[in-house]
Each structure stands twice: as C-alpha cells, then as structure tokens.
Amino acid sequence: MGTSRFAAVEPDLKINIKPGWPALLQWSGSRLVKQGEKLPLRIRAEDEWGNTCWSRPDKVHVKASLDGKNCYENDLLLPAEGWAVRLLEDMPTDKPGELVITAVMPDHPAVKQHTFYVTIDKELDFPRIYYTDLHVHSEDTVGTNSTSYNLNYGRDVTGLDVLAFAHNDFNITTERWKKTVELIREISKDGEFVAYPGTEWCGSSCAGGDHNVIFLHDDEPEFPFLKDGTHVRSVDWNEDSGTTEAIPGAWPLEELWAAYIDDPEGHLLTPHVGGRRCIMDWHHPELEKLIEIGSAWGHFGWLYQDAMERGYKIGASMAGDEHRGRCGGGVPGTAVFGTKGGISGVISPELSRKAIGIALRERHTFASTGERTFGLTSCGNYIMGDEFEHKGAAQVEYRFLGDAGWDEIVAYDHDGEIWRRDLQEELGYSDRKIRFRWGGARIKDRYRWAVWKGTITITDAVINEFEGLGFEHKEETCWRETATTVGFKSDTYGDVDAIEMDVSHLATAKIKIEGTIDGYVKVGDPLKGNPFVHCPTFTWEFTGAELLEAARLKKDLPGVDMFLAMERMSDSDAPREVTGNFEVSANNGPHGHRPVYVVARQVDDAKIWTSALFITFM
User: Fold this and answer.
1) Which residue, of 221, 250, 330, 502, has the fewest CB within 10 Å?
2) Which residue spans within 330-386 are E strands per DSSP?
3) How far is 115 from 113, CA to CA, in rounded Å?
C-alpha cells in the first residue's frame, strides 16, 4: 500500500493550528470572462505559511482600472468571525478590456499590494473560465479537517467552481462515505458551485497504480459495493473491516474498469502520480478521459508525454491531492507534499453538474500549477481535447493569459517538441540580466524530491542585485554569501526554481555553479542527509562570453528531468497575454493520428499544459 505501520494512540492526539498575522493577500476568480457576465471574486488574507487568517476584521482597500481608466473602488472589512475572506460580485464587466484589480491592507503596511488581472472578452462563446480541483481529501481518510470544512473551504475561500472528493477507497468507512455523498448533494447548486463524490482507487503500481473515480451522474454512487454486491474497493482495510489484513477487492485495475464500464458517461477515471504512481501500460479509453499530471506531490509533464507516445486520447488536468485542508491551489506542506496544489481550467457553456461533466469527459481542459491563469488551443472550429480529421497542414492557434509574464510557449506531439516561442528573445536580450534555473526530481515515485544546496560564484564581474523566483515557501531561499557568491537552497519535485541576476561586465565574467543534491531520509540521521546516489554533487563552469553568444546554456543531470540552466533575460517585462499560431505538418503518428499540445511557462515557473488536439490527417 506504500504506507507505514502504525499503532493506535488513545485518546487521539489533536493539534489546533491557528493562523498568524496577515502576511499577504490572495485573489481568486476567473482570469477570463465574457462581456456582461457576472464575475465573482474573492480576496483573502493569509499568514506567512499560507494559512487563511481567521476572525480578523481588517480593512482591505480595493481598486480596479480597465485599460488604464479607473472603474471601481471600495473599502471592505474582513469578517470578525470565520475565514478572513470577502466575496465581491459587483466588479463591472460591461466593457471589454483588461481589468487590473488591486488590494491593499491600510493597517498592515508590511503586507504587499496584490494585483489580479481579468480579461473581459466580448467575443467569448462561454460565460467565463471555470476552475476545478478534482482531487480533495479530508480527515475521513488520510487528510486534515472534515469533509464539510474542505467543501466549504474550496467554495468560499479559494473560490473553486468545481470540486471532487477522492476518499482513499480502502480507508473510507461506509457510514462516512454516505455522509460525504449527502454533504455534496446539499452544497452543490448549479450556477454557483458544482461538487462530485469520488474515491481514490489505491492499487499498487504493479496493479495499475492510483486512479480516481469521479461519479458524474446524479444516481446513487455504486461504492463500496455494486448493486449486485460486488466489492469495489482496491482492498478492504478500515475501521469497519474487523481485521488487520488488507483483503483485495477490485484488484487489479481491470476489475475497477469492469465495475463502471456499463455507464462510462456517468463516470470519470483519472490516473495520477502520488504515492502509488500510475503505470500507463493500463488504459481504458472510455473511462479515462483525463490524466492528472501535477498536484501537491509535484509536476509531472513527463506523464502526459508518456500518454501521447502511447497514442492515448486523454486530456490534461492538475489537482490538489492535498491532504492538509487547503484545496484549490493551496501552498505545500512538508515531506512528500512539496509544491502548490494544482487546478484545472474547464471550458463549459454553463456551471452545472451536467455541463461540467460533459466538458470534463470531452477533455476541454487545461492543467494549471495552481494559478488562476488561462490557456486555449484551437484548430478551426475545434478546441483542445477534440479529435477530428484534417486535410493538409493544420494551423493551431493559441492564447495564454497570466500574471507574472509569459517566458516561453512550447508545442509537443508524440515525438516531443515540435515548435518553440522564446518571449525573452523577442523582447530583446539585456547585456546584464541573466537567470539561473534548476529543477526536476530524483525519481518518479513517492520520495521523489531533490534537495538542492549550492552557490553561484561570478568573478571578473559585479553582481548588482538578485531575486529568487519559484520558491514554494520561505525555507526555500537565496542569499548573498560574499561580494562574488550567491547561495541557494530549495527542494524540487519536478518543478523548477530560479534566481534572476543583474550582472555588470558580463562579457568578462567567469561563472561557477556548484553544490549538492540530497534526498529524503527515511531511515537514519536526517542531519547527515541522503546524497542522491547518481549525482551527489554538481559543478558547472562557463564564461559570460559563452552565455552572451549562446543565450541559453543547459547541463542535464541524472534523475527525472533534472538540470541546471543559465539564460539571458530581457530588461522588458514579459507579456501577460500571448497569442499566435503555428503550423503542424500533415503527418500522422504511429497510432494513426497526431496529438498536439502546448506548454506555456511564466517567469515564476507557473505553467499551463493544454489538453491535446487529436488530429487525424487525411
């Protein structure tokens, strides 16, 4: 099962976690909305660890401008009791353009202004982009806080439009499962919030690996038994079992497919990477319409590429798989949960259980690393997720909306990268501004993260200033050690961290990057570390002249997409909106079609994967 052995402690130990003082503000809402449509927005205060503040009646001043002209101003008071969050429903959307919405806390000058961007589009053929987290846990299984708490947190705090629970199937008792279904029916309301019951089938990787089962239909979910009495848990091992043995049920994965194949439209199965990595040797094309390629466990773009290489017609999604009660893009915890929880964008004609269920199964989704961003690819009348026939070369159009600024746009098919757009190069390289990037994971499985500690030493030049980007929390950081050396430390779980630097006299610079890579210490002294056996140390040397000439230098390392890179940057700000097109030649892959998907990355490593266009060239 990938779990450890535990002994009961009576009575249960409980720790009441209380949020601290406000340290930052966070917006949640749709990045794209149709002109004239309602735009619900939420502003909340968080402490320095990402906990939503509680019972703090602090003032928040909100202003908005549309294409540079002021259009909204309001003073809000956060609730005296409960979560420090306010819902705004009066933001004007009657004119097209880009809304720039700012929030400040006048009585807390240390809390930085937070800005949210919303594009109002009069040509949009759906009301707004909807955001979903399809993988939420609670204390009913291996999680924190009650199911009711987490449902309300997703709806009222992080402002999700759609949420699906994923109770660990071996662990959820029948009584608690029935209560979850009841709670979801009570909280779901078309037009406001859509929730689905679901389970996480926890089969070992050798039996297929983790797969979520989301019940899209309105009937009574067939769990933990089918109508004929068939047991559909992966194993039966919970408080009701009355045994210390894990008794197999629907095992291996084929038996789970058999349980729900009579109603594929009413179900959605999502393979994913978490504790028990899914193995893509198993795939059911009618049940598995989406694949989870990122979560609080890390970023797994390699998994989507694996599916495309195998010819699977499956869409891209990300979710929280977050066990600490912060669904909807919440900040990470510790140990195996090292990145911000992911979310997915869903293109649907309306926010209803039926319409969202159809959109999910039609793969009209993009995967986001937790940010309220937007991505879309299309070819003629078809959008991402669609499969269609085409004569001659295809023109694929794309549109990405972000906040930090887009760094690069890359298109892939079953063979890998087919097209790239470098926004830094387009903006014009600076003679002084450069960026060091590092990331990846040691392995693909549970204890995957790489623990980096290192230094960047630049001589025969001057380090004027530097800034860390992509760090998940305050224990990941960078600092000046000497006049010529910058130190850094962070953990990466498939994600990428970076340091932007301003360096004078780059043409004469000598640059040396060195450090260590450790891993998780499961047995032994954690202070002694656990050096990554395939690459315990790294050293990389080059000159500023070489960087100026090449613009991008990269050193691949052992592991899963592990690397070091040094890149030139522009002095200009990267754009928040990027549109364009590229041509795809009329060549099918070995499975009779050509999948084309796009990955867009911002300067802070926030990323989007679009679901593929599945083109069959005639």
Assistant:
1) 502
2) 343-346, 365-368, 374-379, 382-383
3) 7
Residues with Cβ within 8 Å of 278's Cβ and at least 6 positions away in sequence, in order, are 205, 208, 209, 210, 211, 271, 272, 291, 303
Max CA-CA distance within the chain? Answer: 77
Pairing of strands 613-617, 387-390: parallel
User: Which residue do the tokens 């601290």 mark?
Assistant: 20
Query: How far apart are alpha carbons 214 and 267 in whole angstroms?
Result: 6
Query: Which residues does 109 contact at the CB level (< 8 Å), separation at least 6?
Result: none
| CA–CA gap between residue 16 and residue 285 (Å, rounded) | 45
> Cα angle vertex 149, ends 148, 151, to 5°?
65
Instruction: State the alpha helices, DSSP H only, in 468-529.
Output: none
Rounded distance between C-alpha atoms, residue 331 and residue 85, angstroms: 17
Distance CA 172, CA 169 (A): 6
In whole angstroms, what is the distance from residue 485 CA to residue 504 CA?
14
Please give the pLDDT value at position 1: 46
Cβ pair 308, 413 in contact under 8 A: yes
What is the torsional sign of CA 439, 399, 135, 282?
A: negative
Would you put residue 484 in left (φ > 0), alpha (ψ -120 to 50) or beta?
alpha
Which tokens in the block code for residue 301? 């773009």
pLDDT value of position 9? 79
- Specify the pLDDT at position 5: 57
Q: List the end-to-end C-alpha distance of the chain, in Å, as a whole number.
A: 46
- Which tokens go with 243? 């045994």
Residues in the chain: 618
Alpha-carbon separation of residue 513 from 143, 218, 385, 454, 496 (angstroms): 40, 57, 42, 7, 16
Q: What does 130-184 look like in DSSP terms, one character per residue?
A: EEEEEEE--TTSSSSS-HHHHHHHHHHTS--SEEEE-EETTT--HHHHHHHHHHH
312 within 8 A of 285, measured Cβ to Cβ: yes
Q: How far apart are CA 341 and CA 166, in angstroms?
A: 14
Would you state the structure tokens that stand for residue 37, as one six-digit string? Answer: 């449509």
* Bridge partners for 574 per DSSP: none
Q: Give yes or no for a contact between 217 and 207, defined as CB atoms under 8 angstroms apart.
A: no
Q: What are the per-10-residue average pLDDT scores of the chain (618 residues)?
A: 62 84 97 98 95 96 97 97 97 98 97 98 97 95 91 97 95 94 98 98 94 97 94 84 78 96 98 93 98 97 98 98 89 83 98 98 98 98 98 98 98 98 98 98 95 98 97 94 98 97 98 96 85 97 98 98 98 98 98 98 97 98
How far apart, in whole angstroms, are the C-alpha atoms of residue 234 and residue 205?
Answer: 12
- Provide the b/e sequence for 88-98 (b: ≥16 CB within 10 Å): beebebeebbb
Residue among 115, 129, 133 nearest 26 (CA):
115
Spatial separation of the C-alpha atoms in residues 441 and 11, rounded to whole Å: 39
DSSP 8-state code for residue 527: G
pTM (predicted TM-score) = 0.96
User: Distance of CA 249 to CAs 160, 228, 274, 408, 477, Å?
Assistant: 33, 14, 21, 46, 46
- Any idea what the Cα angle at residue 278 is, between residues 265 and 601, rounded to 5°? 90
